[in-house]
């Protein structure tokens, strides 16, 4: 249904571009197409459950359970298609035991960072 709507919109925009000669309409059509392609691949790309058992164990990831490990694995999957991926670690702001907690978070992050690859 979304594809049909986008095709109809493209047809209307193309007709308008032929009347006005406005080159920005082609740019708009291209941006709509890119947005559609990104939306179309997102569900498959974000499904970490499709990873092998070995990969899930290597990351310490458990599909369906929120965790930094899952975020790292998801970031690796997104990195295949994106120029930039930013991760948020909810427990990074230490106020009580800076040295111990910061060391723990750095080791945790570094262990997962070394597993990243584009393949």
Task: Provide a quick synopsis of the model.
Helix content is 65%, strand content 0%.
List the helices and strands and how they pair.
Layout: H1 2-20, H2 23-45, H3 53-59, H4 68-79, H5 98-113
Helix pairs in contact: 1-2
Folded structure, characterized:
With 119 residues, the chain is mainly alpha-helical. The protein contains 5 helices and no strands. The chain has helices spanning 2-20, 23-45, 53-59, 68-79, 98-113. Helix 1 runs antiparallel to helix 2 (23-45). The protein is elongated and about 65 Å long. It starts with a helix and ends in a 6-residue tail after the last helix. The model has no long low-confidence stretch (mean pLDDT 83).
Q: Could you name the key traits of this structure?
A:
119 residues, mainly alpha, 5 helices
């Amino acid at each position: 249904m979304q594809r049909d709507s986008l095709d109809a919109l493209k047809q209307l925009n193309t007709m308008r571009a032929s009347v006005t000669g406005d080159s920005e309409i082609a740019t708009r059509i291209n941006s709509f197409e890119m947005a559609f392609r990104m939306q179309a691949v997102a569900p498959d790309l974000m499904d970490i459950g499709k990873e092998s058992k070995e990969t899930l164990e290597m990351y310490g990831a458990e599909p369906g359970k929120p965790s930094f490990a899952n975020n790292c694995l998801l970031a690796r999957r997104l990195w295949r298609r994106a120029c930039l991926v930013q991760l948020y670690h909810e427990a990074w702001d230490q106020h009580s035991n800076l040295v111990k907690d910061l060391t723990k978070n750095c080791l945790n992050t570094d262990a997962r960072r070394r597993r990243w690859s584009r393949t």
